[in-house]
Amino acid sequence: MKGKQPDEQIFPTLNVSKASFACINIGQICRIEKGLTFHMARHTFATTICLSNGMAMETLSKMLGHSDIGTTQIYGKITDLKIREDMSRLQEHKSKAFSDYTESIEKQGTTAF
Hints:
The protein has helices at residues 16-29, 38-50, 57-64, 69-75, 80-112. By secondary structure, the chain is mainly alpha-helical. The chain is built from 5 helices and no strands.
């Protein structure tokens, strides 16, 4: 495939040092005054991209290479958006359950007599 590295990988393999350097460069290009680090990028990926889009904590833990899920839970900062989405999902579920329940009662009322 065009553009592949000699080792058959599309992207070059980066170590933490090279990744941190790339983060610093990206920060400079974007004029972000706080120095970006690989750890910050990893944390942002875990929180903003994975958890906020519904990825299971267990899946994320495995992806990050954590042997203890407690380590991953540190990354799992709950965002306001995630709280709103979860509460909306709960409200929809409860609303549907209540609607099904009242519909069931109505049916029983018409067939009982």
